[in-house]
Task: structure prediction
Amino acid sequence: MKKIILIMMASMLAMVAQAAGPSIPLDSHPGDVRDTNSLQRGLGLYMSYCMGCHGLEYARYNRVARDLGIPEDIFEEYLMFTDARIGDLMTIAMSAEDGRRWFGAPPPDLTLVNRVRGSDWLYTYLRGFYADEERPFGVNNAVFENVGMPHALLELQGLCAEPLVLQRDAKIDPLSGNWLIEPGCQEYLIEGSMTPVQFDRAVADMVNFLDYMGEPFQLERQRIGIFVLAFLFVFLFFTILLYREYWKDAH
Ligand code: HEC
Result:
């Protein structure tokens, strides 16, 4: 018996270790994938700032339009900047070879990036660019060291002088309630058009959109799940009646 308990405890330890995830500390992503407005804002930002380099080649424009409740003509007019058709896959024109030549590494397709990296990683990565003279584009990243990607959101965020301070490293003065060390960027070399709070929200929307992208069916899956549970609950009632009926004569 003692042995069994020991084995059970050891296997639970392994589960805890796995749940801890990647070893780099990350900020947690505050999004909710059921928030359609947030998904729409994320899509808009993605189409304006990312689609030039990163395709979403496993998705189709019209499926995204339907899932996010955007009429197709509005989608075509305001969100598609190439001559692609609404039924096409969301591919881009840049070849991997050109990408490698221009950036040192080709910009990967991002349809499934949320499944690989996770929302927290993306949320920290996209806010984590800072000035670094030694890099070809003058920026480096707090989460992805020596990344080949330029700071695509510079005009919104501005340019930070140092790597961002993570939420867990921020400090509050317990007496006054003021920040001693504020989370996020401490000093901007170039001001962006958004405040830090607005920018964090914009990135959260974009990561939300990439979360949806990685599993478009998840919204429906949750809705169906509730129906299935409701059905099982009703079914349980009849099963209990049937059970009583079968055993009635045995007592
Ligand atoms: C000018 C081109 C360009 C733009 C615009 C751009 N990226 Fe990138 N991105 C790259 C390149 C190149 C890499 C590969 C970097 C490397 O591997 O060193 C990359 C890498 C990434 C990665 C890491 C992928 C991985 O798992 O390794 C993510 C996530 C990402 N980009 C998201 C975005 C988002 C979101 C936007 C829009 C806000 C964006 N990128 C805009 C060029 C770009």
Remarks:
- Residues 30-240 form a domain with the Cytochrome Bc1 Complex; Chain D, domain 2 fold (CATH 1.10.760).
- Residues 218-247 form the longest helix (30 residues).
- The pocket of heme C is lined by residues 49-50, 52-54, 99, 103, 105, 107-108, 110, 113, 116-117, 122, 125-126, 147-150, 152-153, 206 (CB under 6 Å).
- The longest strand covers residues 56-60.
